[in-house]
């Protein structure tokens, strides 16, 4: 089966389609084909001996594809984890880094070439199946294997249960994800939050060709993170319900990678019928994305589910009021006293969407309530800014590099003690 996958990648190369890494062929396969490969590859995973080679140095082999979602949540989290490990003076070998303009070069310059005893795979569970079949079990064998994964629903498909045979433990960014994975996992699952850093300098709206005289609501998303889950059209609908075509306000929808998703892009553009809504369809570096957040007045996310919610946390760090669905991974840091939580009901998926199976549950945010909150923030901005200050303090306290570094160091020390001869 691995030969079949390699053949697919070679075909993609022949036609000039994305092929820089084993995971980039996903966008050109429909969901039925992806599910077919998931099932076939998952069946072929067999248990490792779990005999760790204790002669290997206590160092880390860091497997990730930083060219995928490099400016989005997954890529941002990958970069941040590498930085934390480096700041802890833990030698790491970046085994799987792709060339990309937004990857900090210092992450690769400090990497050395050795075979450490610990593997950390910063890659989602679905991609890990393919990764295993492409690189072979030798990479996993005789090592202590950790996967840092994001998962957005409160249940995990049993389809992926064999992945646990490859790992010794799982790290995940939120308690929501931890509970979901732990409900199926046969191995320990730990919450290791990401580092959230605020922008260190001010930005100007003219940098993004945005007006200075309007109150700006903002939502950002990547089409590769699944259009239905991000639910951008709900933000548009709530804004229209709250303000109509009021020219004193502007809703900015920042999106990326729409070219691969023409049907979803058309759905978004159909929803945008008013002159006070603008779509920015482009890819920014992570730093530039934070600059955009910095020039808005309020960040709004009516997601159906989040594994963590990076942009929400970054907006809070920037002292922006946030209006968000009161559900999933963001509930680790969005509370009634520091954010505006939108009511919701849980509904089943009507079809398979990406890795999310039909019948699984996610949130359906209450658009009327969202519109009321948007109106409140606009009408009572001083109160909203006061609440936002509590949000910024919370992020600063619990998601700083020192605290996250301490959690990682404690966990790695425990692993070191457990595998000592």
UniProtKB/TrEMBL annotation:
Record carries keyword Transferase: yes
Domain Glycosyl transferase family: 203-343
Entry keyword Transferase: yes
One Pfam family linked to the record: Glycos_transf_1
Xref: InterPro entries: Glyco_trans_1
GO terms, molecular function: glycosyltransferase activity
Keywords for this protein: Transferase
PANTHER family for this protein: PUTATIVE-RELATED (PTHR46656)
UniProt name for this protein: Glycosyl transferase family 2
